[in-house]
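Running this now, will post back.
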Amino acid sequence: MLLSFLAPAALLQGATLLEGATVHTMLPGDEPRVRNLLVQEGRIVHLSDGPELPAELELPAELERVQLEGKHLFPGLIDGMVHHDMEHDGLYVLSGVVLCRDMGNELGRVLIAAMPSVRERLPGPSLQVAGAIFDGVPPATTEAVIVRTAEEVEDKFPRLVERGIQLASFHAGIPREAWLALIEAAHGAGMQAWGPVPAGCSLAEALAAEQDGLCYLEAFQQPGEEGDAERTRAQIAECAASGVAVMPLLDVYAYRTVDQGDDPPILNYLAPSYADWWRADLEQRRALFDEDYLARGAQLYERLERLLRELHAAGVPLVPGSAAPNPWMAPGAGLHDELATWEAAGLPRADVLRLATAGAARALGVEEDYGSLEVGKVASALVLGADPRDSLDALREPDAVLLRGRYLTPGYLRELRGALLEAQLQATARAEAPLEIEAPELPEGRVVLQGRVEGLAFERVVAAEEYWVVRGYDGSTSWIGRMVLAGGIGQAPARHTIHQRFQEGALVGFDLEIEGGGISYRVEGLTRGGQFRLKRWLNEQYVDTNSTPRRPALVDVGMATPAMILNHYRVVGTEAGKCQALYFEGVDPVAVEWNFQRGENGVLSVRTGRGPMVATFEADGALAKLGRAEGKASVRYESVRHTTFGGPGMPPPGRAGAKPGTKLGAGNDERGE
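Update: finished.
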């Protein structure tokens, strides 16, 4: 199977002696030479000082010996910025990347992926994770933790620490007060804080706040001062004196003026959703490819190359990162592309090799385990057919990989590459098949509206939701939605099920279940004693109970049903309104105010606190179309079918069959609508 260590004939897992290779320890002053390296229990336990083993060395009784004469043994590579997806694990390994720092992701998924027990089942890199990235309003990604104030950081960050994050990461949209509080909180927890300089703040402020790492190079580009070389030199000197590390991500700038072609080979290894995304990005850039655009791009890139050389010459710690899997930043190969741009920009090859290993490990705070080959460190290394000092290309496709003590032979890597291609073919076939949704158990009552909507990305169906509205015999109304999200390579579709119960126009309770990626998450909300209580379970284990004195008006988990609920329970006409919605950051509940307005044309416009939402509806209350945006991410839903079973459905106030003036959460009697 693709995502497991299964091929015992091609995989050595016990004590292993690697003999006869030219070993590049990457320790200062230690020149590469022929050595023998002994691995046991995932660590390097012996490194000979020559081609012969010392007579006093006691070798384990059960020992695998691997002859590597003529080969080079080099420390595994470190990628300082990824957004990890388990379906890309194999691509990192095939490229010799043994450690990735995830700078922000879907919280539950990445924390599970980083668990040692999970990592040991997969042929993938070790992970250092920030969990979810911190951002302001609107967020740049759907997975961000939104913070507006220092108090919100003080509330939310400790909860991420409890769940096992290893660093703090933030986007440029984070407010200044929250940013400063996050850096302080991270340092208090013994962690680093990385990100770009926030909008409206200066590089000097970031250095004064002791931000540990800067992402991208915009902080050095002052508007209208691109030619101010003296100012740039002063900024670089300040950075060097502070010790802050910089992740240039130079290839992120370089790719913008490059046409990758219509069918680059990397797309054969990516799930359809990624391939669609990357192709759409290329088409957007192709539309800009005129002489002026390319000239401006070349001019900017030349300046960034010069800036990179000056940062390096000043002794500023540089960390290579790929930003994979953003468009054309391939998992694994993207790091090699970044290293190649550094060398092309003028950095000495020997320095590039050091920065991709020992330098990155030191800057990221993992030098005790990674970055060099020496006794006591994690046994992760590359077996190369050529000397990387002669060409960086020697690193791109290792002959074999030592991964946390497991020796992945050339045969294993060939099988892994073939498995990736086969899994991609299967994922493509699944992407063409309709998403099946099994109906959940419905409450007792009469179904008055039922339908299906599908979510589209680049004209491909990536999600589907079926919904049911049930009139209970006790006068309540239940809105039930079940969404299925298309799975990636080797992954089953994820499924979300939400059941919201309303009585007299007010939410009285809900049940939410999220399943996928090995995670099972359940939340129960219920009104008790004037408070709204939330009980949570993760993988069938009880987590906690929280109470809030303010009852939310609805629950938003990114489906179509919240829009239909808001459309049904609200003020007639163009009058604006407000309500409190409950959503989830990872598995943590968060309340946010929604501001909504309905135009004369029936279009419902909502500011959700995370981005805009616009929806249109049929006369019976069924969703027709919906678009949502959260930062750069967006989703588009379209109705496929619906039925009212001969009744009026769930029309909004003012339509046939509805009582005028019904407000969401207002306590109006909705029976008989």
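Residues 291-313 form the longest helix (23 residues). More later if anyone needs it.
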